[in-house]
Amino acid sequence: MSTSSNSNTNTNGMEKTQQTLLLTEMRKLVVKQGSSAEHYGDPMLLRFLITSSMDPTKAAKMWIKWKKWREEIAPLGYIPQSEILDQLGAKKFYLQAKASQQLVLLFSFSKTTSMFAPKD
């Protein structure tokens, strides 16, 4: 019987060695199709494996489509502030963090700012 507390089992109930084999196979398929996943860690690739029901072939295809989309939308790896001045001018919060980062939210409202519509 395997539990999530077992060091050989991950949160999906899968053996770590089996997960590692699937990740390795996915990486090989990605390279074989002319792309790369070398700058991305296992947690990122695991998202695609989980979404594709742990099928490395499907996950590799999804990865390549995602990477192509990502390169089109943000060729520098990020969106420069100069391209989003209108959104920044709205002074809204735009949250973005990696899965490994802890995120603390802090909200500040001035007296003139209200979350609700004014009562006229």
Structural notes for this entry:
This protein is mainly alpha-helical and 120 residues long. It has one domain (1-85). Helix content is 42%, strand content 0%. The chain is built from 4 helices and no strands. Helix 2 (42-51) crosses helix 3. The longest helix is centred in the middle third of the chain and has 18 residues, at 56-73. It is extended and about 55 Å long. Residues 1-5 have low confidence and may be disordered.
Properties at a glance:
120 residues; mainly alpha; 4 helices; 42% helix
Query: Residue share in helices?
Result: 40-55%
Q: What's the end-to-end separation, in Å?
A: 64 Å
Taking the sheet with the most strands, its summary is: none
The average pLDDT score comes to: 79
**How many structural units, i.e. domains?**
1
Task: Tell me how many strands there are.
Answer: 0
Order of helices and strands: HHHH
Classification by helices and strands:
mainly alpha
Shape estimate: extended
Rounded to the nearest angstrom, the radius of gyration is: 21 Å
How many helix segments?
4
Report the β-strand fraction as a percent range.
under 5%
Low-confidence runs of at least 5 consecutive residues: 1-5
